[in-house]
Design goal:
The chain is 61% helix and 3% strand. By secondary structure, it is mainly alpha-helical.
Amino acid sequence: MSVIHQPLREQMEAFVDEHRRALADSLDGLTEEQARRRLVPSKTTLLGLVKHATMVERVWFDEAVTGRSRADIGIPETPDESFILVASDTIESVRDTYLEACDDSRRAARNLDLDDLLPGNRRGPLPLRWVYLHVLRELAQHCGHADILREQILAAE
């Protein structure tokens, strides 16, 4: 079956996974210092973007699916907090945690249909289709941020 004729669910999952990989790969070949380098006034760094994306996965495929609280999941209450790096955060640890969250997300959505309503979002119940589109939009945005930050970091070397 050609990519064009794949069912919508497969297409959505393929695009989300492509962006998940791209964001994880943005750390390839960097030193710890480069991955932590702040080039903008916000807390945004390449390592922070991947750490934030872990929260994104947990919010949309754990909190939204299960209704568990962010405290129960072990993630920050606000997106801004998710960019904060601690001394123990390394490229390996942050990427591994992110990839584990992505795997957990795939498992959480595996038996759901695109029109299934997920009860745990702060906006109220949302269909899985909306969640996939939102996560794709957010990952695409962060991949763009990562591309620019990585280009600046490598150009400075």
